[in-house]
Design brief:
Strand content: 25-35%
Distance between the termini: 55 Å
CATH topology of the largest domain: Beta-galactosidase, Chain A, domain 5
CATH architecture of the largest domain: Distorted Sandwich
Number of domains: 3
Bound molecules: alpha-D-galactopyranose
CATH superfamily of the largest domain: alpha-galactosidase from lactobacil brevis
CATH class of the largest domain: Mainly Beta
C-alpha cells in the first residue's frame, strides 16, 4: 500500500508548487475545461493546448496537442476514424488516449490484460471524469468487466508540460494479470516528415545524440535492465521535419519518471498517424492484481514548443528545477565539491583524506566527498559491499576525526554508498545469500564482482533504510553519493509465488523511492546524488529524490564537451556533476590543460577530482581563480537559460554554449576549440536571449576576444554583431561574462 501513497504524494507536489522563479507565463487557474455539449476536454498551460474527447463509441480519442489556442476556440464532437479496409480495424485507426488490447487493436496498446478464464479482450470506454486544480482525472472502464483505469492529466501553467499517468484497478472478483501497462499514449498531427531525436550510449559514453526519420513501423526506446540505463535514456524529442533547428520549429518532447525497466514506442501507422506510448517495459513483465488492488503507472511528462530544440531543452530545464527536483521549486545552488575517487580509488585513509581536504579547502571547495573504500573489507571491488561498518584499519577512530576536520576547514562532508548491492565476499551475503535477485538453483551472474540485492523484499528494504538512517544519525554528514553499479540479471524473487515474481520490476523501484522519501524526511538537510557507474540512473523519477547526478565515469574533458551537450538536451545543467581530473585522462589517454578542464566542468555543477598531492603551486593558483569565477556565475549556469550557440555534433571543431540568468542581467559564454586548421579564425559567435536594450559589459574569465570588441554594448549588439573569440591550437577554451550594471 505504501507505494501508492508515495506516488500520490509526488503527484501532489507536482500540483502544489505554483510560484517559482522559473515562471515563463503567469499561472492560470483555469488549466482544464470540459465542453459538455461536445464531450471535449481541453488543457491549457504555458504556450500549449492539449485536447481530447469522447467519441460516439465512448472511446477517449486524441484530438490536438500543440501551440496554445484562443480561449474561445471550440472543437466539434470527436468522431472515430473509419476502418479503411478489412485489414485496418477502426479501433486501430482511431488514435486513443489509452487503448486496451481488444476489439482488433493492431498497434501498441496502453494496457493488456489476461483474465483467469483465458479472455484477453479489453475495451476501455469513458465512464466519468473529475476536474482537478490543474487537470482532470478520467475514469475508463472495460465494456463488460469491472476493470477501471483512472487517467490522471495535469498541465503545468508555466511550461505547458503535460503530466500523465494511469491507475489500473481490479474491480472484479478474481485476480487478473497485467502484461503491459503504459502511463499514456500521445498522438501527433498526421505528418510524414517527423524527425526523432533520442539519447543512447554505454558505460563511459552516455548521452550520445541520435536522429532518425520516423517512417511507417515502430521505433522502440527502452531499458530492459531493471534500471534507467546508460544505453538509452527515457527522453525523446520529435521535430516536425528536418528543417527544425536549434532556434526554430515545432518540437514535441517528453521524459519518463521511472527508474526501472521502461519503454517508449514511437509508431507510425499505415495512415501516417504517429503515436507515442510509454510506461513500464512489457518485456518480462507481469503484474498480478488481486480483486480491489491497483497498479499505478509511472508518470510520463511531455511538452511542445515552436521554438526549436533549444527551447525544448530550456522548457525541460525550467520544469525540472521548478517542479521535479527537491527544494519545492527552489532547488539549492550546487556547492563546489571535491571527490577523492580518481585520486585515491579504494585507498582511503584518515590521514590521506585529511591531506586532500586541506588542499581542497585552500582553493575554495565547499563540500568534501570521500568515495568508495571506507567500509567493510573494501580493499578493491571484490569485497565489502553490503557491510556498512567503518573499516577500522583505515579509520581507527571512526569517521569523526575526518568529518570534524572537514567541517573545521569550512566544508561540508559527503560520503559514497552503494546500498542496493552486495559482494559475495561479504558478511551480508554470507548471512543472507537469498537476499539477492536470483533464480533458484541457477548460477548468479556477477557484474563488477557484485550481485543486486532484491530491494523489492521488505527485509532488504528495511536493512537498507536502517543502515542509511544509522549512518546519517551517527555522523554529521551533509551529502550522500548513492551509487548503483550494475544492472539486473536473473531477476527472480523465489520468496514469492511463481505468478507474482515478475512484480520485482515495479516493487524494487517503488521500495527504492520509498527509502529515499523516508531518508529525506528524517534527514531534511542531507543532499543526495544519483550515480550509477556514471549516468546510468538519470530520469524524472529518481530526480524527485536526488539533488544532482553523476554524468559519466568518463571525465576526459573533450569527451565531456560531447556528453554535456547530449545531457543538457534532456536535463538541466544545474544537476550535471562535472569534475576536473588528472591528465592524461584514462578514458582517452588525452592531456589537456587544467584551464580547459575547468572551463568544461564549469558548464555544469563544478567539482574537482584531481590528485591534489600532485599539483604544482601554479595549479592551485589557477584553480583558486577558476573556482572564484565559477561562484560568480554558477547561479546563471545552474538555474539560467542555456543556449547552444555552436554544436559539437559530428566532430565539429568548434562548440559554444551560453547561459543567461533568469533576470537577464548576466550571461556566460563558454567556447571550445578542438583543433584549429588551415589558419582559419574561430567563427563569430552570436549571443542569444539577452535583453536587447540593456547595456552589457564583457569581461573574460579566461581567454581573449578580438581587439575590436567593445567593452560595453547593448544586448542587440552582442546578439546581432556578435563576438570574435581569439583561439588557436588544440583543445583550447575561453569563457566570458556579460553583465548589466
Ligand atoms: C562508480 C562511480 C564512480 C566511483 C566508483 C567507486 O564507478 O561512478 O564515480 O564512485 O563507482 O567504486
Amino acid at each position: 500500500m505504501q507505494k501508492f501513497s508515495l506516488r500520490l504524494l509526488s503527484r501532489a507536489l507536482f500540483v502544489s508548487v505554483l510560484a517559482s522563479p522559473f515562471a515563463a507565463v503567469a499561472a492560470d487557474k483555469t488549466a482544464a475545461s470540459f465542453d459538455a455539449e461536445h464531450k471535449v476536454f481541453r488543457l491549457d498551460g504555458g504556450h500549449v493546448s492539449y485536447v481530447f474527447g469522447v467519441n460516439e463509441r465512448g472511446e477517449l480519442q486524441s484530438v490536438y496537442w500543440g501551440g496554445r489556442l484562443q480561449a474561445g476556440d471550440r472543437f466539434p464532437m470527436t468522431h472515430s476514424v473509419k476502418g479503411h479496409t478489412t485489414f485496418e480495424a477502426t479501433t486501430s485507426e482511431t488514435p486513443q488516449e489509452y487503448g486496451g488490447w481488444g476489439a482488433g487493436l493492431q498497434f501498441e496498446p496502453a494496457l493488456k490484460i489476461t483474465f483467469p478464464d483465458g479472455n484477453r479482450d479489453l475495451v476501455l470506454h469513458y465512464q466519468s471524469h473529475k476536474l482537478t486544480d490543474n487537470g482532470v482525472d478520467i475514469t475508463l472502464r472495460d465494456i463488460q468487466r469491472d476493470v477501471r483505469v483512472v487517467l490522471h492529466y495535469s498541465i503545468d501553467a508555466n511550461s505547458g508540460i503535460v503530466a500523465r499517468s494511469a491507475t489500473i484497478t481490479n474491480g472484479t472478483t478474481e485476480p487478473f494479470t497485467i502484461e503491459q501497462a503504459a502511463a499514456a499514449t500521445f498522438a501527433l498531427p498526421r505528418s510524414t516528415d517527423y524527425m526523432l531525436h533520442y539519447l543512447t550510449g554505454r558505460w563511459s559514453s552516455e548521452w550520445q545524440m541520435n536522429t532518425r526519420k520516423i517512417d511507417q513501423g515502430e521505433t522502440v526506446l527502452e531499458s530492459r535492465r531493471g534500471s534507467t540505463s546508460h544505453h538509452n535514456n527515457p527522453y525523446f524529442a520529435i521535430g516536425r521535419d528536418a528543417s527544425v533547428s536549434e532556434i526554430a520549429g515545432d518540437v514535441w518532447f517528453g521524459e519518463m519518471g521511472w527508474s526501472g525497466s521502461w519503454r517508449m514506442t514511437i509508431e507510425q501507422d499505415s495512415l501516417h498517424q504517429v503515436r507515442i506510448t510509454g510506461g513500464y517495459n512489457p518485456f518480462d513483465f507481469a503484474y498480478k492484481l488481486a480483486p480491489g488492488q491497483s497498479l499505478e503507472s509511472p508518470i510520463f511528462y511531455v511538452g511542445y514548443t515552436s521554438g526549436g530544440y533549444g527551447e525544448a531543452s530550456r522548457i525541460l530545464h525550467r520544469f525540472q528545477l521548478a517542479k521535479i527536483l527537491p527544494g519545492n521549486g527552489h532547488p539549492k545552488v550546487r556547492p563546489v565539491l571535491y571527490n577523492s575517487w580518481e585520486a585515491t580509488t579504494f585507498n582511503v585513509t584518515e590521514q590521506g583524506q585529511i591531506a586532500l581536504a586541506e588542499k581542497a579547502a585552500s582553493i575554495g571547495v565547499e563540500r568534501f566527498v570521500m568515495d568508495d573504500g571506507w567500509f567493510g573489507q573494501r580493499k578493491n571491488d571484490h569485497a565489502g559491499l553490503g557491510d556498512w561498518y567503518v573499516n577500522k584499519e583505515k579509520f581507527p577512530n571512526g569517521l569523526k576525526p575526518l568529518i570534524d576536520r572537514v567541517h573545521g576547514l569550512g566544508m561540508q562532508f559527503g560520503i559514497w554508498v552503494e546500498p542496493e548491492m552486495v559482494n559475495p565476499d561479504s558478511d551480508l551475503y554470507r548471512a543472507h545469500p537469498d537476499w539477492v535477485l536470483h533464480f533458484k538453483g541457477r548460477p548468479r551472474t556477477e557484474g563488477r564482482n557484485q550481485l543486486t540485492l532484491n530491494v523489492a523484499m521488505p527485509e532488504v528494504r528495511d536493512y537498507i533504510f536502517k543502515f542509511m538512517d544509522d549512518l546519517l544519525t551517527k555522523n554529521d554528514i551533509q551529502f550522500i553519493k548513492w551509487d548503483y553499479n550494475r544492472p539486473f540479471s536473473e531477476p527472480g524473487w523465489e520468496q514469492m509465488p511463481p505468478d507474482e515474481q515478475k512484480k520485482v520490476y515495479v516493487a524494487f523501484v517503488d521500495n527504492l523511492y520509498s527509502i529515499f522519501a523516508e531518508l529525506r524526511k528524517k534527514h531534511p538537510n542531507v543532499e543526495f546524488e544519483s550515480c550509477s557507474s556514471g549516468g546510468g540512473r538519470v530520469d524524472l523519477g529518481i530526480l524527485r529524490y536526488t539533488d544532482q547526478v553523476w554524468t559519466s565515469d568518463n571525465t576526459d574533458a573533450y569527451d565531456r564537451v560531447i556528453m554535456q551537450e547530449g545531457f543538457t538536451q534532456a536535463y538541466t545543467p544545474g544537476i550535471m556533476m562535472a569534475w576536473t581530473t588528472d591528465v592524461p585522462n584514462g578514458a582517452e589517454n588525452r592531456s589537456v590543460s587544467l584551464a580547459y578542464r575547468f572551463l568544461v566542468a564549469m558548464e555544469g555543477s563544478l567539482g574537482v577530482g584531481d590528485n591534489l598531492n600532485k599539483w604544482k603551486p601554479e595549479d592551485f593558483e589557477l584553480a583558486k581563480k577558476m573556482i572564484a569565477a565559477y561562484k560568480d556565475v554558477r547561479n546563471t549556469v545552474q538555474h539560467g537559460s542555456l543556449y547552444r550557440l555552436a554544436s559539437v555534433r559530428d566532430n565539429a571543431p568548434y562548440s559554444a554554449t551560453e547561459s543567461v540568468s533568469i533576470d537577464r542581467k548576466q550571461a556566460v559564454l563558454f567556447a571550445y576549440l578542438h583543433s584549429s586548421t588551415l589558419r582559419y579564425p574561430y567563427p563569430r559567435l552570436f549571443m542569444q536571449g539577452l535583453d536587447p536594450k540593456a547595456m552589457y559589459t564583457i569581461r573574460p574569465i579566461y581567454g581573449k576576444a578580438d581587439k575590436a570588441t567593445p567593452v560595453t554594448a547593448s544586448g542587440d549588439y552582442w546578439m546581432h554583431v556578435g563576438i570574435d573569440v581569439q583561439m588557436k591550437g588544440d583543445f583550447q577554451a575561453s569563457a566570458f561574462v556579460f553583465e548589466t550594471k
